[in-house]
Design brief:
transmembrane, Transport permease protein, Nod_factor_ABC_transporter
Length: about 250
């Protein structure tokens, strides 16, 4: 990481600490969903899981929702800098162009990791009991961090193409709902025909299954490799899209 990227990262972190409302908003939705599904529907849904406690089943899905929710923060932050003219101003300074987006993306990863840790803490209070050793935790964290990195780049691109912060906060919403249309909340076998097919072939299902398997100590097979491949593909798309949008929006 270059010195310019570190400077932009420091700016992003200080801005996040000064205005914590976006971070709180990113945590609020997954926590409320966790309370709703575990507290209200948990006992009923546990009956269909062959003895698995629903809080253990749904927590990995909620963690993925937490990651997708927090990518909105990066999109809004990038869009705010663009609309306020800060990016154009930074362009006139003797700093690396790549550092501008790097700071947003890395800062977004840190914010999302902090929010996800809070969601895990709430899940533990509600009875989540992962059956995992240190290596399992590290592997699950690696997949979650890979997803955070990938979605942060996509969010940066969304922030650059959005007309303003309001639009930037709405455009990533489909990403938030995609984990709900996979195996995040119920097994895909319980879904109707067309939805079952979609759930099996969308990126968040293997990512959720890999995290769930690693945290609960069940075999993951090739699911982890598929999850990493999806994360790498999403990161590549987000990076190329954001770089193109950045250069296009800052041509002299």
């Amino acid at each position: 990481m270059t010195g310019d990227s570190i400077t932009m990262l420091r700016r992003k972190v200080k801005h996040s600490m000064r205005y914590p409302s976006l971070t709180i908003g990113g945590v609020a939705m997954p926590v409320l969903m966790l309370l709703l599904f575990v507290g209200v529907f948990g006992r009923t849904l546990t009956a269909g899981l062959d003895g698995t406690d629903y809080v253990d089943y749904v927590t990995p899905g909620i963690l993925i929702v937490s990651v997708t929710s927090c990518c909105i923060i990066t999109a809004v932050s990038v869009s705010s800098d663009k609309v306020a003219g800060i990016m154009k101003r930074l362009r006139t300074m003797a700093i690396s162009r790549a550092a501008v987006l790097n700071g947003h993306v890395l800062g977004g990863v840190i914010q999302t990791a902090f929010s996800t840790a809070l969601v895990i803490a709430v899940a533990l209070l509600l009875g989540f009991r992962p059956h995992v050793d240190v290596l399992g935790w590290l592997a699950a964290a690696g997949i979650l961090l890979s997803l955070m990195f990938a979605l942060s780049w996509i969010a940066a691109a969304v922030g650059l193409v959005a007309r303003g912060p309001e639009s930037a906060s709405n455009l990533p919403l489909p990403l938030t709902f995609l984990p709900m249309l996979g195996s995040g909340f119920v097994p895909t076998d319980s879904l109707p025909g067309w939805l079952h097919w979609f759930a099996e072939h969308q990126p968040f299902t293997p990512i959720t299954e890999a995290v769930r398997g690693l945290l609960m100590g069940t075999p993951v097979g090739g699911t982890a490799a598929i999850a990493i491949a999806w994360c790498a593909g999403l990161a590549a798309v987000g990076y190329l899209w954001s770089r193109r949008a950045f250069e296009k929006g800052h041509k002299p």
